[in-house]
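$ ./design --mode recover --in tokens.txt
reading tokens...
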């Protein structure tokens, strides 16, 4: 069932354009209006939401962190993202106007199940974003929005992550539509952008030979840092998690703006640092700030491994290696920039002779608290 791929993970990475396309499919009516009927939450309730709390663990929580930037921008609703295992134990402020979004590939993560139960006891409405039909989390939630990534077998999550971001974006646009935060044509523009992403993800996948070569040259790395800002920050966290899980290498993700507040002390000669560079377009582009971070770490001897949008020549001067991804709007970029990081972790683990589908000490779904 690996379809000719060396591992389930390789197959699932290759499946990502389809995971996004299938998650988008069938969500609009003939007039282009978003229809998320399966959510089963009354429109009046959705209109009165005054806070969103995303609860999830691991990679799913990073999908929530990416979505926060989009949903706050589109809907003007405050969004918190909380690890499910922390949520319940801090006496969170939850009311009938709180919408809790539980994101889970398996739908069986016990920490997330317990957080869903707690939220519902407090009167919140809960929507599950889940990849597994009929699993516990959607069954115990008020409504569900399924990701259509198809079964994910490899322990490390890849295609589910892209599908989770896609589904969260659909939910954000749906809320904006219901609440009148955006005009219909703006919403259809955003949907159009989303529909163009599978083709761009496929383009990224077509260029991963260079990442494979890079990873194989780094099989003896003992520590890798990942820096990003805005939506690139959760991508950095995800890149670090993939490398820890698969290649057993110490890895940390940081918000690039935090560098001078401490982590820059880690930089020494030969330290590999991945930098996820923001798009140049957009009103408040952080591009120049991240380019100067690249310069700062390079000046201290770091190996600068840069992920940037096509046509970005500014990064070349300070980059040891640049992986270019197609241009796209800022909020869509995580669907592209995470892919080289997934491939890097998988290939580095492969170079070390490790089993990428079954990393040590991990289970596909964590059904104990
Ligand atoms: C990372 C990974 C885990 C899961 C987390 C949540 O590659 O797979 O961090 O994302 O355990 O699992 P689900 O989404 O099934 O609730």
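writing sequence...
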């Amino acid at each position: 069932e690996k379809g000719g791929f060396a591992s389930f993970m390789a197959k699932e990475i290759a499946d990502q354009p389809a995971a996004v396309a299938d998650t988008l499919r069938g969500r609009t009516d003939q007039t282009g209006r978003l229809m998320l009927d399966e959510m089963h939450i009354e429109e009046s309730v959705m209109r009165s939401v005054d806070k969103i709390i995303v609860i999830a663990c691991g990679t799913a929580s990073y999908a929530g962190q990416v979505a926060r930037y989009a949903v706050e921008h589109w809907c003007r609703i405050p969004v918190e993202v909380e690890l499910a295992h922390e949520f319940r134990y801090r006496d969170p402020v939850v009311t009938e106007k709180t919408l809790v979004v539980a994101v889970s590939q398996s739908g069986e993560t016990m920490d997330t199940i317990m957080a869903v139960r707690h939220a519902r006891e407090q009167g919140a409405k809960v929507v599950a974003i889940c990849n597994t039909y009929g699993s516990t989390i959607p069954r115990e939630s008020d409504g569900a929005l399924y990701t259509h990534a198809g079964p994910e077998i490899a322990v490390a999550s890849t295609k589910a992550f892209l599908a989770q971001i896609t589904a969260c974006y659909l939910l954000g646009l749906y809320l904006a539509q219901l609440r009148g935060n955006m005009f219909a044509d703006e919403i259809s523009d955003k949907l159009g952008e989303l529909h163009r992403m599978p083709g761009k993800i496929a383009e990224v996948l077509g260029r991963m030979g260079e990442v494979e070569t890079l990873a194989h040259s780094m099989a003896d790395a003992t520590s890798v840092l990942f820096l990003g800002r805005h939506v690139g920050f959760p991508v950095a966290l995800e890149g670090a998690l993939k490398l820890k899980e698969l290649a057993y290498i110490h890895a940390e993700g940081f918000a690039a703006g935090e560098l001078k507040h401490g982590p820059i002390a880690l930089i020494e000669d030969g330290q590999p640092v991945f930098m996820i560079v923001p798009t140049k377009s957009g009103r408040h582009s952080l591009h120049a700030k991240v380019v100067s971070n690249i310069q700062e770490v390079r000046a201290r001897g770091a190996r600068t491994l840069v992920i940037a949008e096509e046509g970005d020549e500014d990064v070349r001067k300070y980059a040891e290696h640049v992986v270019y991804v197609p241009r796209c709007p800022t909020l869509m970029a995580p669907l592209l920039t995470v892919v080289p990081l997934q491939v890097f972790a998988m290939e580095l683990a492969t170079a070390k002779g490790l089993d990428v589908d079954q990393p040590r000490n991990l289970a596909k779904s964590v059904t104990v608290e």
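exit 0
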